[in-house]
Amino acid sequence: MTVKEIAKMIDHTVLSNTATHETFVEACEFAKANGCASVCICPFFVAECAKLLQGTEVKTCTVIGFPHGTHSTAAKVAEAKAAIADGAEELDMVVNVSKVKDGDWGYVKSDIAAVTLVSHAAGASVKVIFENCFLTDDEKKQLCQICSEVGVDFVKTSTGFGTGGATAKDVRLMRDNSKPEVQVKAAGGIRTLDQLLEMYEAGATRMGCSRSAAVLEEAKKRFG
Fold it and tell me: Which distant-in-sequence residues (6+ apart) come within 8 Å of 165 by Cβ?
């Protein structure tokens, strides 16, 4: 594992509602300098983020239905279209956890499918956030099956705003219950290199991380 390979797994993330304009700009500059996979930022900053990342391999990523997932499907689709129009290349969408808890799987599937359809039509990737801290293992497995059927690009553990974050156990469960072409993103509480590597070993190929600087500094010391 090289530092460059680690950086390419990281979605450098700034989603705080108190983040300043300077913080968002610095996130873009950091991701460019270190070769991160993407910068995941709030929807209102997408257009500027895309301009700052233009000409690089770092993708512009934003969130849909964030952080609770309870937006209507129409609102999520409108968010996705607006984000893509502004230059987003990756969309991290929160499932409707309320509908998951009700077992209304038809609604859950159509909600995910609607966002995936408009995103894929525009060439954008979709990561579906489960918010695993609120779910049973059976609910997580059912979501993996639905996401595999719909053809999303990633299943993702957490928003980072719930009561818990990524665990290796959940990553393994998601990897084992999703089609091979559906990747796993671990997010929420990944603050150290060892935590990142644990998620990678469990099957995650993308990591949502707001402490990317500390993780990569640790990687440089360990791997050179």
Answer: 133, 157, 158, 187, 188, 189, 190
37, with CB counted inside 10 A (0-12, 13-18, 19+), is: buried
Say how far apart CA 57 and CA 38 lie, in whole Å: 8
Q: What is the pLDDT of residues 65-114, one digit of tens each?
A: 999 999 999 999 999 999 999 999 999 999 999 999 999 999 999 999 99
* Torsion angles phi and psi, residue 164, rounded to 5: -155, 165
The residues assigned a catalytic role are 92, 156, 185
For residue 189, what are its two tokens? 């509480």
The sign of the dihedral angle between the CA atoms of 66, 158, 199, 211 is positive
What is the chain's length?
A: 224
- Please name the residue that has the structure tokens 């499907």: 73
Q: Which of 33, 95, 40 is nearest to 69 (CA)?
A: 95
Residue 224's pLDDT is what? 83
Q: Delineate the domains of the chain, giving CATH numbers in brackets.
A: 3-223 (3.20.20.70)
By C-alpha distance, which of 144, 8, 159, 12 is closest to 92? 159
Residue 153 contacts residue 183 (beta carbons within 8 Å): yes
> What span, in angstroms and rounded, lies between the C-alpha atoms of 188 and 208?
7
Q: What is the pLDDT of residues 155-171, one digit of tens each?
A: 999 999 999 999 999 99
Those residues whose C-beta lies under 8 Å from the C-beta of residue 83, and which sit 6 or more positions away, are 43, 46, 62, 64, 91
Phi/psi at 187 (nearest 5 deg)?
-150, 150
